[in-house]
Each structure stands twice: as C-alpha cells, then as structure tokens.
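Quick review question:
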C-alpha cells in the first residue's frame, strides 16, 4: 500500500491520479498513527516551508514521518515535500526541517542569472542524472520534467542523484538510502514523470 501524507499543503488529487495512471492505488492519510501500515510513503507539498512544517507539527505528523523514514521503507518527497526532508530552510526566515537529509534550502541566487531568467523557476527543464538509482530506471541520463519553485536544496553531492541548470546547477533530486526527494513535479511531467511514479511504486 502507498500512502500520501495529507497535511493540507499539496495538490493531492494530481498525485493520486498519477499513481492511478500507472495502475497503482494510493491512499490519502491524515492520521500520523496510521503511517506505519503503508509499504511506501509520499510526502507532497505546495507552498511555503514554514507553513508546511507547522501543519505537519499540528498533530505530530512530523515525528510520524521521521519514524517512518527510520523503518527503512521507501519515502518520496515531491517539490516542497523534498525540501522538507532537509535540515532547514531560509524561506521567509529560518525554519527547521525534518532533518532526514543533511543540507538546507535556499533562495535562487539571482545575481548569477542573466536578464532572461525569472524567479520562480517555472516550466520544463532538464534533470541530469548524477547517480544510478532505481527511481530513474528506464529513463535517459537527462530528461525533462516540470518545475515550479523559488527555493532549492543545497547538500553534499553524496546525496545528489539529479541536478538541473537554471542560471547555475542546483540539486533537483536526492537520495539517502530509502529516502528519496525530487524537486520537479512528476505528477505534472507526462511520460517521464509517470515513469518515476511507476519506479517508486515498484521499489
């Protein structure tokens, strides 16, 4: 069974539909006490980091996700959900994250941009695979996915399984053992995104 963490911070219908398209049922879960019953877990998210962490903390979902990650079962953070996996974020102040992957989330450094680039980073862009991972099985070494974000992760290359260039190279996909994160939206990325969803379901 695949659970999707429901904490009022994500476009959950599109994630459920993406799993349905690859023939897999995914269930919304808002009860932190029930996370352990799932074989795999999705942490989605759209919006601000600080708000998301507050929502997770309201009923102890933050600690439940951390406990789930420690079980060794696969966990995938999508977009803001990926950012929440890190230790901290600088979005609208400094906020503590779940601490499941060493690193932090920072704003795009627009001083490194040319005049044609804007924040947020929005639209289709290439993800370059940095390391072999079951998440990208059957995909090319670089492929296009759909992005919408103003902040990005900074971490050691040990955890970077994918990078993307927008003004400069930034980490767009991560893995720490059973914990995965992807900055773009696979549920909005057509064939390539559905392949990632399918790969995660098969872990």
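Suggested answer, residue by residue:
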């Amino acid at each position: 069974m695949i659970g999707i963490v429901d904490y009022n911070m994500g476009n959950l219908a599109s994630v459920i539909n993406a799993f349905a398209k690859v023939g897999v049922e995914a269930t919304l879960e808002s009860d932190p006490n029930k996370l352990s019953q799932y074989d795999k877990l999705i942490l989605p998210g759209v919006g601000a980091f600080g708000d998301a962490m507050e929502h997770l903390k309201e009923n102890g979902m933050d600690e439940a996700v951390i406990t789930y990650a420690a079980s060794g079962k696969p966990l995938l953070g999508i977009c803001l959900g990926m950012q929440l996996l890190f230790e901290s974020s600088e979005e609208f102040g400094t906020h503590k994250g779940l601490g499941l992957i060493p690193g932090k989330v920072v704003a795009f450094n627009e001083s490194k941009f040319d005049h044609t680039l804007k924040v947020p980073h929005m639209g289709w862009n290439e993800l370059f695979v940095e390391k072999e991972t079951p998440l990208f099985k059957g995909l090319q070494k670089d492929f296009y996915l759909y992005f919408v974000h103003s902040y990005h992760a900074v971490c050691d290359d040990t955890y970077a399984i994918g990078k993307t260039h927008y003004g400069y190279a930034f980490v767009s996909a991560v893995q720490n053992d059973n914990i995965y994160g992807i900055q773009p939206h696979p549920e909005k990325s057509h064939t390539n995104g559905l392949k990632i969803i399918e790969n995660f379901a098969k872990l």
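Why it works: The first helix runs from residue 12 to 21. The chain has one domain: 2-202.
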